[in-house]
């Protein structure tokens, strides 16, 4: 969860290389990519109770992430089950 504290510029300085890459995309953006790719989301599993506690305890967030609900931010290690959309 700590990576949500940093601006994109700060994060690029800390981990902006292929060896330390970490995807900061949150679940709504991932779901949108699946839909744009012609997939139907059948199921997903994702909320991390430890991450939810960190947010409840006041983990500071960069402005990019503040508008998202804690339940969305706490979704880590996403697992999706999809199928190709009909049509």
Features:
87 residues; alpha+beta; two-stranded antiparallel sheet; 5 helices; 2 strands; 39% helix
Characterise this structure.
Helices cover 39% and strands 22% of the residues. The model has no long low-confidence stretch (mean pLDDT 86). It is globular and about 45 Å long. It contains 5 helices and 2 strands; from the N terminus they run ααβαααβ. With 87 residues, the protein is of the alpha+beta class. Strands 1-2 form a two-stranded antiparallel sheet. The protein has one domain. The chain has helices at residues 8-15, 27-36, 49-56, 63-66, 70-73, and strands spanning 39-47, 75-84.
Secondary-structure topology with pairs:
Blueprint: H1 8-15, H2 27-36, E1 39-47, H3 49-56, H4 63-66, H5 70-73, E2 75-84
Antiparallel strand pairs: 1-2
> What is the C-alpha radius of gyration, as a whole number of Å?
15 Å
Largest sheet: 2 strands, antiparallel
Instruction: Encode the helix/strand succession as letters.
Output: HHEHHHE
Number of strands: 2
Strand line-up of the largest beta sheet = 1-2
**Tally of helical runs:** 5
In total, the number of domains comes to 1
Mean pLDDT: 86
Q: Uncertain runs with pLDDT below 50, 5 residues or more?
A: none
Helix content: 25-40%
Morphology:
globular
Report the portion of residues in β strands: 15-25%
Distance between the termini: 39 Å
Q: Could you say which structural class the secondary elements and strand pairing correspond to?
A: alpha+beta
């Amino acid at each position: 969860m700590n990576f949500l504290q940093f601006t994109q510029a700060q994060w690029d300085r800390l981990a902006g290389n292929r060896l330390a890459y970490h995807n900061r995309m949150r679940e709504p953006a991932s779901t949108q990519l699946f839909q744009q790719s012609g997939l139907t989301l059948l199921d997903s599993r994702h909320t991390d109770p430890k991450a939810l506690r960190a947010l409840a305890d006041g983990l500071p967030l960069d402005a990019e992430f503040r508008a998202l609900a804690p339940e969305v931010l706490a979704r880590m290690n996403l697992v999706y089950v999809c199928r190709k959309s009909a049509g």
